[in-house]
Amino acid sequence: MLDAKKIFHIISYLQYPFLIVSIYYCYREFVMSGAPSFPDINKGLMYLGLGVSFSTLQDTTKTQNSISRRVFENPKYAQRFIVVVAVLVAFFVDIGLFGTISRNPILNELAIGCLGLRIGMMGMLKAVIEMAEHHRKTEAN
After folding, report:
1. How many angstroms from the chain centroid is the CA of residue 31?
2. Cβ neighbours around 115 below 10 Å, total
3. CA-wise closest residue to 127 among 76, 70, 68, 74
4. How far are the Cα atoms of 30, 75, 89, 109 from residue 19, in angstroms, in the given order?
5. Which of 74, 92, 119, 136 has the most CB atoms within 10 Å of its CB?
6. What is the pLDDT along the chain (141 residues), one digit of tens a residue?
């Protein structure tokens, strides 16, 4: 029988269909007419947030590739990556909240998508912090 960690790791692969749908919505109208469609981009941001949320269900005790292994084994790189993700979370919060009260129709249209993406990014921030703790190399290692 599978344990909970393996089940959630398997469920985390649902991130890929959501990311494909996100790419579809973000580029559909742009490819067809050459002009961006902000309602579609908003949908794309929402699906991107769902994809990122599913990606945080993966096992944080394992790295997925050699690049992430190098980043998380080096405490300096891991700290920088955590700061970058935290800044992205703050950015999407700011854009989302400002967009909800803005009179700019474009920002207003993208606000909900940015807030949805922010929710996924907050889960990603937690997963990144856990990965940095699990994979940190010290002088004793």
Report:
1. 24
2. 19
3. 68
4. 17, 29, 18, 20
5. 92
6. 678 888 998 899 999 999 999 999 999 888 888 888 889 999 999 999 999 999 999 888 877 788 888 888 888 999 999 999 999 999 999 999 999 998 998 888 899 999 999 999 999 999 999 988 888 775 444
Q: Is 44 exposed, middle or buried (0-12, 13-18, 19+ CB in 10 A)?
A: buried
* Residues 86, 54 contacting (CB under 8 angstroms): no
Q: pTM to 2 decimals?
A: 0.84
- Based on the number of CB atoms within 10 Å of its own CB, is 26 exposed (0-12), middle (13-18) or buried (19 or more)? buried
